[in-house]
Design goal:
Elements lengths: L3 H31 L2 H13 L3 H14 L4 H13 L3 H14 L4 H13 L3 H12 L5 H29 L3 H14 L4 H14 L2 H14 L4 H13 L3 H14 L4 H25 L3 H14 L4 H17 L3 H14 L4 H13 L3 H14 L4 H17 L4 H5 L7 H14 L8 H22 L1 H8 L45
Helix pairs in contact: 1-2, 2-3, 3-4, 4-5, 5-6, 6-7, 6-8, 7-8, 8-9, 9-10, 10-11, 11-12, 12-13, 12-14, 13-14, 14-15, 15-16, 16-17, 16-18, 17-18, 18-19, 18-20, 19-20, 22-23, 23-24
């Protein structure tokens, strides 16, 4: 059972909150009834103290509307804006407070701090100096003096950063701007200058970060969106480039640079999407043509050429065009030797070309850069099995057909070779013996390659005719008893077929 003391304690704990809610509800009714500015101010203060910023803001809006010359209404509303992180909205309210009551040092000090963060140094210094002349409290005096000193230091740093920038000493300029931005966190000019330094230094990620901040800090900042779009474009990120240039055109549909760039990015984006759709449909040759068109649309951006060649390499490997695939993949790997996808595709093409040792090298290199890739592990194991197999018996080579050969091609090759190596065609005992062995190999090759299950096993590195390879498996496809096993077997059709041996 729960003790009565415990229940009583819990009820008493909630009483203060209930009283505050009743008080707020009562005040709200009263305020709603007479709409007085004082009541809105009182309600706003209570809601602000309770952390209900949106509700507090609505009451201070009403107070400002009710008495446009009430400086405290503006000051309280500015306080809420700052608590909500809306400094842009707070600044006009603080200016209105100072206009209505020039000796309100707290408002002037807050405005000076906001102006300093925005990099408006002259205006900030003016506010700090006026605070110092207006009989401030000790705390206000110390803060104003400290901020004034900081502003002076930043003024000197700004001059130095501009000088370094114009001298094309971008590393020094970026370091100086770092210090400036630590204080002037909302300074658009400094961020845009630092972004340009990063672009010149090749640090595009940092440039993007500054330009994104600049696009939010300054209204209608079309230049920031244009620069972001061009950076993403030159990095080969066509989708992000398209997103940013669209933001520019939302602000100014007639922006010449943005519109011209938009047309180029949109065309390229459409071609890449179309190529990928063709790839999904396994229309690999069409996908290759589409990616070749991408390289013609944008021949000057290395990243797009590399992307197109990477995808062409993949398409050719999937389309069993091994020789072309190896050539294109190798081009990509000259520029990007650690590209795991291209290493895998070239390895697959090498397997198709029966260059198993080269395939193994590519799979091993890819594995160093992507240790947990199952596809690499399986591909490597397969290439190793095929290499081992190739050093023994290769049924494709025996029949002289490619690994991609259809059943009709296999049977045609078999019949031709069976006729050529028929033992009756040879009189010399040694030659006849050699022909018998060759004939058996030809027949075994035909049996394996025309049986889908056996051929799949062989393609994965197992020899269905090799007892060693088939340990633990139960297959009964072996030829026993040498050439005698062919008695009654007709390689050229159905029905009985008897060999005649003349040893005269």
């Amino acid at each position: 059972m729960v003790s009565i003391n415990h229940v009583t304690h819990k009820i008493l704990t909630y009483i203060p909150y209930v009283l505050v809610l009743i008080d707020l509800r009562y005040e709200g009714v009263k305020c709603g009834r007479d709409g007085s500015v004082d009541n809105h101010m009182e309600m706003g203060k209570k809601l602000l103290a309770a952390g209900q910023l949106a509700d507090a803001l609505s009451h201070f809006h009403a107070a400002v509307d009710g008495d446009p010359k009430n400086y405290m209404a503006y000051y309280r509303r500015a306080t809420v804006f700052l608590a909500m992180g809306k400094s842009k909205s707070a600044l006009p309210d603080l200016s209105r407070v100072i206009e209505l009551k020039p000796d309100f040092t707290s408002a002037r000090l807050q405005r000076g701090n906001l102006l300093l963060k925005q990099g408006r140094l002259d205006e900030a210094e003016s506010d700090f100096k006026k605070v110092l002349k207006s009989n401030p409290s000790d705390k206000e005096e110390r803060e104003a003096q400290s901020q004034l000193t900081k502003s002076d230091e930043i003024q000197r740093l700004v001059a130095q950063a501009r000088s370094s920038f114009h001298s094309q000493d971008y590393v020094t300029a970026a370091t100086q701007l770092d210090t400036i931005i630590e204080t002037c966190v909302w300074d658009v000019t400094s961020r845009e200058m630092r972004a340009e330094c990063f672009i010149q230094m090749g640090e595009m990620g940092k440039a993007i970060s500054d330009l994104k901040a600049a696009s939010k800090l300054k209204n209608d900042n079309t230049q920031a969106f244009y620069k972001l779009s061009t950076i993403y474009y030159n990095l080969g990120d066509h989708e992000m480039s398209l997103n940013e240039v669209r933001e520019c055109l939302k602000l100014d549909p007639d922006h010449k640079l943005c519109y011209s760039h938009y047309k180029q990015v949109k065309k390229l984006n459409k071609q890449i999407q179309s190529a990928e759709e063709l790839m999904q449909e396994q229309r690999y040759e069409d996908a290759v043509s589409k990616y070749e068109a991408v390289m013609k649309t944008e021949p000057n951006v290395h990243h797009f050429s590399l992307l197109a060649k990477e995808r062409i390499c993949h398409a050719l490997a999937q389309d069993q065009q091994a020789s072309r695939a190896v050539s294109v993949c190798s081009e990509v790997l000259q520029s990007d030797p650690e590209n795991v996808n291209v290493l895998k595709d070239r390895a697959e093409a090498y397997v198709q070309e029966e260059q198993y040792e080269e395939a193994i090298k590519d799979y091993e290199t890819a594995g160093k850069h992507s240790e947990n890739d199952r596809q690499i592990k399986e591909g490597l194991e397969r290439a190793q099995r095929l290499l081992k197999q190739s050093q023994k018996r290769d049924y494709y080579k025996i029949l002289g057909v490619k690994r991609t050969a259809q059943k009709k091609e296999i049977i045609r090759a078999y019949r031709k070779l069976a006729q050529q190596w028929h033992p009756d065609n040879f009189q010399d005992p040694e030659e006849k013996k050699k022909a018998e062995k060759k004939f058996i190999d030809i027949a075994q090759a035909k049996e394996v390659l025309t049986d889908p299950e056996m051929r799949t096993k062989f393609d994965h590195g197992e020899d269905p005719m090799d007892p060693e390879s088939q340990q633990g498996h139960h297959h009964h496809h072996h030829f026993h008893g040498g050439f005698q096993g062919f008695q009654g077997f007709n390689p050229f059709g159905s029905g009985p077929f008897n060999f005649k041996f003349n040893f005269n």
